[in-house]
Amino acid sequence: MTSLARKLPILLILTAAVIGAVFLRDKISFEALAEHRAALLAYRDAHFVLASLGFVAVYVAIVALSLPGATIATLTGGFLFGLFPGVLYNVIAATLGAAAVFLAARAGFGAAAAEKLQSSTGAAARLQAALRENQWSALLIMRLVPALPFFLANLIPAFLGIRLFPFALTTFLGIIPGTFVFTSIGAGLGEVFARGETPDLGVIFTAPVLLPLLGLAALSALPIVFKALRKEH
Questions:
Q1: Residue 85, preceding bond cis, omega within 30 degrees?
Q2: Structure pTM?
């Protein structure tokens, strides 16, 4: 029963993710935001504190349960609360949701997987050792470069035995640049709605946005490079 209780949270998350992918993909969408924008703005104006707390709680649930709609939630944060405090709400909520997935995965399967890797002698064990040795840089790079899906970036550190504090802090810091971009898009949605258009979310992959992110990732990788050079000498 103890083992089952530890596995239950991550099993519930995986179940919710599958159900969400099947039934909620069309409900948490840009079109839904456009349809309900007047009601959302009216509620925000009448109950700002409750709207703020409710938004953060919903965003945390979306990320923690790996439901579709995290990008729409980020846009909504900008649309409802502006660039600030919208970006702060978005970063806090995404970090809390990611930490919930991380803890559930580590409790369910991650601790056992990390122990097996540590006692093994293969490439996976070397990867685990390298990640632990350079965990701050590696985790920051994982967040700064939008190569891995957010859900996988929450699971992999749990299975490699990373501690919660470096995971949470690097998540918070690493998602700020990308979240800033999407929140700023959300802050301008009023004009997009007025024109009957859809926001261009591919902007994060354009050179003016992607190159600075890659530059930050390169800076984060410098400690790894310096350690490797010292070992060679």
A1: yes
A2: 0.84
